[in-house]
Specification:
Elements (H helix, E strand, L loop, with lengths): L4 H9 L4 H32 L3 H8 L6 H10 L1
Length: 77
């Protein structure tokens, strides 16, 4: 296999067309945008949860309840 590493590498990286690279960059930019949006939403949610910090921690002490589940439970209540 070691003798074929160069051939394998060339076959993987030398086959993208300009259009494919463009599409990959567009997709990557969209993913970065979505991740930034999620980060901002998480920050906003954390602001609203500040008065309920103790309740969130208490709910997280229940086995199987993580932060997101605790937040949902609080929102339902």
């Amino acid at each position: 296999m070691r003798q074929k590493v160069k051939a394998l590498s060339d076959s993987l990286f030398g086959t993208f067309t300009h259009h494919q690279i463009f599409l990959i960059r567009q997709s990557w930019s969209h993913i970065m945008f979505l991740e930034e949006s999620i980060r901002k939403l998480d920050e906003e949610i954390d602001k609203y949860l500040e008065p309920y910090k103790e309740e969130v921690q208490l709910l997280q002490s229940v086995p199987g309840v993580d932060k997101s589940t605790a937040v949902v439970l609080l929102a339902i209540i």
